[in-house]
Amino acid sequence: IIYNQDSPPTAKQLNEAWSIYIEKSDNFDFLMGLTNLRTIEGNMLASGNLSALSGLTNLRYINLHGTKAEGDVEHLKNLSNLFYINLAFTDVYGDVASFKDMPELEQLDISHTSISGNIEGVIDPNQMKNLDYRSTAVEGALMHLFFGDDSTVVEDYHKAYKVTFLSTEVDNSAKALAGFENITEIKMSSCTIYDLSFLNTLPNLEVLDIFYCHEISSLDAIENVNIKTLTITNTKIESELTEISALTNLECIDIY
């Protein structure tokens, strides 16, 4: 349903709603007690405090990007069913540790907020499909092999077997991986990729997951890679993908 404070839905409609789009509001108090809600979205005229969401334990999806949402993200810490959170360009604040106990969380955008704290041990990048914490005071590295904007990268590259690139230019980081025999899995999410040739230097690479990436002209570079699982999602590739036929070890492919 659509909520507009000038012509609000009935109490019955609110209580039965599974999804709500906030078109205009001075506060979020009307959300309190709506335990059936799974989805909350809003536009720039939606204003309110996150405290009203604290009891909505069935929530799966929150998109308040660009709204006038405010308050401490601590109010979301018990919403363990969330898989999608977008609070970018809002006035929310608090410790990034509030997102720690969310086992299903796959997409998190807290960019351009006042959220702070250390992200180490909070977010598992192997679980994330998209993560953006640019222009925040969030600090720390996500794992031994994590490359992303505003992240700290530690030195023990050779110990890692999984590599995750999140919201970065892959070409700037990939050269450091050349020849590392332990790497079996690479995930790229919301990245810019011009050259995939570095994959040919990873002899034991078996899993390649590309999600919402750009600037890929072809997959020529993977013809000689021993990939067993290939996933390409929401990514435009200019070639006709005939290169995939050369992947003789391929066991699972998912492209959409």
List key phrases describing it.
256 residues, mainly beta, 7-stranded parallel β-sheet, 6-stranded parallel β-sheet, 18 strands, elongated
Report on this model:
The protein is mostly beta strands and 256 residues long. The protein is 4% helix and 29% strand. The protein has helices at 11-16, 170-174, and strands at residues 2-4, 19-24, 39-42, 47-49, 61-63, 68-72, 84-86, 91-95, 107-109, 114-118, 130-132, 137-139, 146-148, 162-166, 185-189, 207-211, 229-233, 252-255. The strands form three sheets. It has a seven-stranded parallel sheet with strand order 1-2-3-5-7-9-11, with no helix packed on it. The two termini are 29 Å apart. The model is unreliable at 141-159 (pLDDT under 50).
Describe this structure in a few short sentences.
The protein is mainly beta and 256 residues long.
Number of strands: 18
Output the structural class: mainly beta
Question: What spatial form do the alpha-carbon principal axes imply?
Answer: elongated
Series of H and E elements: EHEEEEEEEEEEEEEHEEEE
Number of helices: 2
% residues in beta strands: 25-35%
Helix content: under 10%
Report mean pLDDT, rounded to a whole number: 83
- Poorly predicted tracts of residues: 141-159
Biggest β-sheet: count, sense, barrel? 7 strands, parallel
Rg calc = 21 Å
